[in-house]
Each structure stands twice: as structure tokens, then as C-alpha cells.
């Protein structure tokens, strides 16, 4: 009998130790996404490392600063973020950042000065509010952006919605709000030479 009790006690001790070891295993919370967001993200990521030339196809009312050669470069890609510089002639200040957030997709506009410092108007953008499609996602202005626009004296931009379309032959960047529409279409059938490193980033 004593041997039986001893064996049971040893077995119980090992069980407690094993359970404690299991309890110490820490796993990060999963970064969840729905199918349409994953497909959209992957459709863009398929172009990683390539650059494409575009043209303004809608600009009403006409804005300044988009007369140079327009190049988008799907420059850096991870499982959760895409960095896409948007070059306008010799201006390398703009980078679009698309990020999986666990509750959808975020679009931010990282604007830099030539010395790499942050522009006063930077990191504005929006977040998906619906499922969208594997080819189209919309990003209505988020609260940070609205407060930034007001602070900079441009409250009309609070109504901004940015849209990005990714089709087999064309990528489109579109901005819409009451009284304003801007769109650039990029030809995905003809990759071009890679542009310089965007301001504020490293090779």
C-alpha cells in the first residue's frame, strides 16, 4: 500500500509540473483578418519589388504639384504591412502605408521633408469600415486625420475617403469628398526602373 501511495504521489507531482510548464507557454494573440481583406492585401503584395508609371485621370478641381512623372513602387512588404512610395518627378516625399490592424486595413500617408524629417501634414489616412472586395478597399478619414486637417486649416478634408483599386492591369489611387475627386491610374503591365529611396527611408 505505501508503495502504491508513493507512486500515485510521484505521478501527481509530475502532472502538476507538466501542467505548470504548459501554462507558462505564451502565444501572441492572432492578427485576424477577413477573406476580402487578406485577398486584397495579397493582390497588392504580389507586386512587391516592382515599380509602375501612372497618370492623373481625374483632378477636379485641378490641384498643383502632380505635373512630374508619377511612379508607384511596392517597395517593402511584410505579412502585415505594405510600404508603397508615390514619387512625383523629383519629389520623393510620399509613402502610402497599408497595414493589417486586426480589425481591418489601415491606410496612412507618410509625408517627409527632403531632409527626412516629418512634414507637418503626415500620417493622415483612414481605416476600412466594411469588407470591401479583393480588388477594392475604401478608407474613410480617421479621427486623427480629421483633427489634423482642422488644426492645419483644411476642415473640408474631413470628408475624405481614399480608395485603392488593384486589378490585373491597373492600380488606381483615388480621393473623393464633396466637390473633390482625384485619381491616378498606374499601368501594371509595364514595370519601370526602380525610383530613388523615398525621403526619410533607408535602402
Concise synopsis of the structure shown:
By secondary structure, the chain is an alpha+beta fold.
Relative strand content: 35-45%
How much helix is in the residues? 10-25%
**Total strand count, please?**
11
Q: Which structural class is indicated by helix and strand composition?
A: alpha+beta
Order of helices and strands: HHEEEEEEEEHEEE
Mean pLDDT: 92
General description of the model:
With 203 residues, this protein is α+β, with helices and mostly antiparallel strands. The protein has helices at residues 2-23, 35-45, 143-151; strands at 51-60, 70-73, 76-77, 81-88, 91-100, 105-111, 124-127, 136-140, 161-166, 170-177, 180-192. Strands 1, 2, 3, 4, 5, 6, 7, 8, 9, 10 and 11 form an 11-stranded antiparallel beta sheet that branches. Mean pLDDT is 92; it is low at 16-20.
Any key phrases for this structure?
alpha+beta; 38% strand
Write the layout of secondary structure elements.
Elements: H1 2-23, H2 35-45, E1 51-60, E2 70-73, E3 76-77, E4 81-88, E5 91-100, E6 105-111, E7 124-127, E8 136-140, H3 143-151, E9 161-166, E10 170-177, E11 180-192
Antiparallel strand pairs: 1-2, 1-11, 2-4, 3-4, 4-5, 5-6, 6-7, 8-9, 9-10, 10-11
Amino acid at each position: 500500500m505505501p508503495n502504491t501511495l508513493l507512486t500515485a504521489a510521484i505521478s501527481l507531482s509530475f502532472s502538476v509540473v507538466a501542467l505548470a510548464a504548459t501554462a507558462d507557454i505564451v502565444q501572441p494573440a492572432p492578427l485576424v483578418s477577413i477573406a476580402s481583406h487578406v485577398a486584397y492585401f495579397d493582390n497588392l503584395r504580389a507586386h512587391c519589388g516592382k515599380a509602375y508609371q501612372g497618370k492623373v485621370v481625374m483632378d477636379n478641381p485641378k490641384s498643383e504639384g502632380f505635373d512630374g512623372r508619377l511612379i508607384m513602387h511596392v517597395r517593402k512588404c511584410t505579412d502585415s504591412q505594405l510600404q508603397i512610395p508615390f514619387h512625383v518627378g523629383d519629389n520623393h516625399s510620399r509613402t502610402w502605408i497599408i497595414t493589417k490592424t486586426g480589425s481591418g486595413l489601415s491606410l496612412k500617408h507618410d509625408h517627409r521633408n527632403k531632409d527626412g524629417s516629418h512634414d507637418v501634414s503626415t500620417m493622415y489616412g483612414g481605416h476600412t469600415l466594411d469588407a470591401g472586395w479583393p480588388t477594392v478597399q475604401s478608407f474613410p478619414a480617421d479621427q486623427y486625420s480629421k483633427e489634423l486637417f482642422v488644426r492645419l486649416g483644411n476642415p473640408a478634408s474631413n470628408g475624405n475617403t481614399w480608395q485603392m483599386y488593384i486589378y490585373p492591369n491597373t492600380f488606381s489611387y483615388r480621393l473623393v469628398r464633396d466637390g473633390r475627386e482625384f485619381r491616378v491610374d498606374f499601368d501594371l503591365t509595364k514595370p519601370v526602373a526602380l525610383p530613388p529611396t523615398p525621403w526619410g527611408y533607408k535602402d
